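Subject: mismatched residue count in predicted assembly?

I count 227 residues in my input, but I want to confirm that the predicted structure covers every chain. Input:
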Amino acid sequence: QKEVEQNSGPLSVPEGAIASLNCTYSDRGSQSFFWYRQYSGKSPELIMSIYSNGDKEDGRFTAQLNKASQYVSLLIRDSQPSDSATYLCAGVNYGGSQGNLIFGKGTKLSVKP
Amino acid sequence: DAGVTQSPTHLIKTRGQQVTLRCSPKSGHDTVSWYQQALGQGPQFIFQYYEEEERQRGNFPDRFSGHQFPNYSSELNVNALLLGDSALYLCASSLGGGGLYEQYFGPGTRLTVT
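Triage response: the counts match. Full output below for your records.
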């Protein structure tokens, strides 16, 4: 059973701090990972994708992938109250013509003003 | 650039009834995947359609079926509804033929079964 594990939180950080969200996965064959942000009552929004070992930066977000440790993380710098949401980590389950996403349960982030 | 659209937004059904949910993919995308998200859980994969065929299926019973039309839009049908089918149903679109697997979600349909 391929799984993606996340700490459900809640993770609380003060405004302006760095929020660190972590995710581990069981499938060593996984190559592609994604972070989605989901506000309460809304659908997931893709914020980062990462396909190779190392760091990928996009604005205040940095995704990190360590395939040897089967570990993915998301750093949010200068956290804002508007970043308060549930963050979902997803890996690709290959099969068929496309592959589907396997999600963790999400980590709820709260940024306090 | 039109994003993924879904209809209806909300739906209330009774146990045993049947429901059809609809999805139009993002412009330029040809692959549609459906997910079920229960409260407090991550989305669970139901199935994926590409070139009007079901290409992959998750661990869902045959009560869940779907279809993809020539214009790439898709339907999800659920028969003999159970209370446990109450959830947010998400449609995600992507570009087929292999590649980056980036999937973009629609706003979802909130289904309540009473």
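Chain B is about 0% helix and 50% strand. Marking this ticket as 'not a bug'.
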